[in-house]
Amino acid sequence: MLRSCALEWTGNWDDYICLVEFAYNNSWHASIKCAPFEMLYGRKCRAPICWDQVGERVIEGPEMIEVTNAKVAVAKEKL
């Protein structure tokens, strides 16, 4: 993905690296059977166009850290 984008945006591809990262992290991966973002956070990522939607804010505690660490371990095993 990065190679094709770098070839497309010759000369200033680094200006677009954040877009490539967003696309990669939200693309389905066969090894983990979901997108990396979804594996880590347990939900699908909202596109930047949805970021202005108001929702309930929740402060995550130690349980969230444990769940996240477990998901990272599963992802590492499947690599």
Automatic annotation (TrEMBL):
> Annotated Gene Ontology MF terms?
nucleic acid binding; transferase activity
> Cross-referenced InterPro entries, in alphabetical order?
RNaseH_sf
The alphabetized UniProt keywords are: Transferase
Which Gene3D superfamilies does this entry report, sorted A to Z? Answer: Ribonuclease H-like superfamily/Ribonuclease H
Question: Which PANTHER family does this UniProt record tie to the protein?
Answer: CHROMO DOMAIN-CONTAINING PROTEIN-RELATED (PTHR45835:SF99), YALI0A06105P (PTHR45835)
The protein's name is Putative nucleotidyltransferase, ribonuclease H
Which organism's genome codes for this protein?
Answer: Tanacetum cinerariifolium (Dalmatian daisy)
